Amino acid sequence: MIPKLTLGWIALTGLLWSQTLGTRFKDPVFEQVRVTKSIKYGENLSFTNVQVDLFMDVYEPVGDTMQKRPVIVLFHAGSFLPPSLASQAFGRIPIGSREDSGIVALCKEFARRGYVAISATHRLGWNPQASTQEARAQSIIQAVWRAMQDARALVRYLRKDAATTNQWRIDPDRIVMGGSSSGAYVALHVAYLNLPSELDNPKFKRADNTPFVDTTQPGLNRGTGPNAFEGGSGNPGYPSHIQAVLNLGGALGDTSFIQNENVPVISLHGVQDHTTPYTAGIVVTAVGNYPIIEVFGSYSLTENLIAKGNQTALYPDFANDRPFPGLYGFTGAGFEPFGWYSDSDSIEKARARRYIDTILWFATPRLFKVLNLPTIQMPLATSLSGNSGASGTFILYPNPATVPQLYVEHPSFGIQRLELYRLTGEKVAEISLATPTNSYTWSLPASLAQGIYILQVYTEKGVITQRWSLL
Known about the structure:
By secondary structure, this protein is an alpha+beta fold. Helices cover about 20% and strands about 30% of the residues.
């Protein structure tokens, strides 16, 4: 029988709480997150040549005193369509905004780990109903170009803030950019589309040899030459380079963009994604499946990044990642498996949250390495992500365990059911209790493999989600 209390659990004011230490930037060490919404970071002409403001929401750990914090900027999915059209195209709500569920959840979790996290939007709009593939290709490349210039303006905004008012207390030398699907396209092009010559490619020209992107056209640029890549979305005079990319199901327009920029990419991608190919392929419209242009998804992208030396910061620690260092394929998953929507039931939402946990499990130690973050030990937060109403103090012991057995206790609510999942989302064990109880010792199958799992505890008042390790 596993004892209820050890030296790791201390009684305080009648409750039990953990003094287990975690590592900042890897583990959730902050209880609460403060969100500051609708911060303007730039402006430019829209797809329809109307002046629009550009906004971001900023997520920060409450009670943090660190003066220079790494920042991660995440852009939403939505195929560069306005939210109303994106929701029609994908048949789900919400999608295509700063409020997308998966992006918000990731921002909160990165903030709990000590990052400044930002959910931002960029200019939207293109013509997926153009009658020819060439016209569709030109329209989407221009959409990527506008979004890329907006993203660069956001990076400049952050560096301007760091050099002046320092409102957000970010480290200007530790900026990560990423996003989901089309949002990840934006981050990848900020990292790798940075030379005028890279657009001098027949792939990005019309049949009459005119370029898809006319950098003298209003809304596409307010300058020429090298300044074309900075654009006119605001905050001139500050650098716009980034240190790493978190690519969640995105792609790059062409591998010829990749030089040795020394910008590592951490990628997680649904292997069966039909919106953006996992390898290389023709991306199609969300409605009608009309061909647009060939892109290079996470597998082909990472293969080329390695060849050019951009993933070297992941060595030697993550040299054994499969199929490549920095790449995790969601086998059996398609588009944005970590998102949930207004019509999602509790099962779909719980499944999406397990994918969120997998993203954090894979991405945080690799970002820690490539950003060369300091090792700072702090008490782990006592509140659990995924808690949907089961308040009070929850105990999971031992964690990590050396035998396939665990003890759970909730002093306030009766435990009804336990489920154990791999990080890939596969359920490996479950048990329903005939009578709800405040504590339970669960003997798991002796064949259970060593590794990291997700435990879901169903109580009378909600579901608690916690990571559990077997050594």
